[in-house]
């Protein structure tokens, strides 16, 4: 399943050259994953209360073009579940209009219980996989 999130680039998001500081894309991607969960699974606070804590274990990003102050960006997130214990979000930051690819990332997450032990992904998450 695909989830999208609209982002406006503010001055605070940019570096001294007026381009989006690279680490801010990670924030945008985190927001998109959070919104996906809250829209299609449950609020993260509820998941945490149930002992379903999602953590990033691997991230690979490719920076293709700069975003700039004032740009409108769409973050697309696609979820796959290659095993009962791992979920991978394939994410893109696209500049609107025209949908130029700015950044792509594969973000692998696992689910832990409150004691930090690995647990299977909940069925509600596995059911979202494409």
Structural class by sheet pairing and helices: alpha+beta
Which fold name is given in CATH as the topology? Thiol Ester Dehydrase, Chain A
The CATH homologous superfamily name equals Hotdog Thioesterase
* Structural shape: elongated
**Helical segment count:** 3
The domain tally reads 1
Instruction: Supply Rg.
Output: 15 Å
Number of strands: 6
> What's the helical proportion of residues?
10-25%
Order of helices and strands: EHHEEEEEH
Mean pLDDT across residues: 96
| CATH C-level name | Alpha Beta
Characterize the main sheet.
6 strands, antiparallel
Strand share of the residues?
35-45%
The rounded distance between the terminal residues' Cα atoms is 5 Å
Low-confidence stretches: none
Going by CATH, the architecture would be: Roll
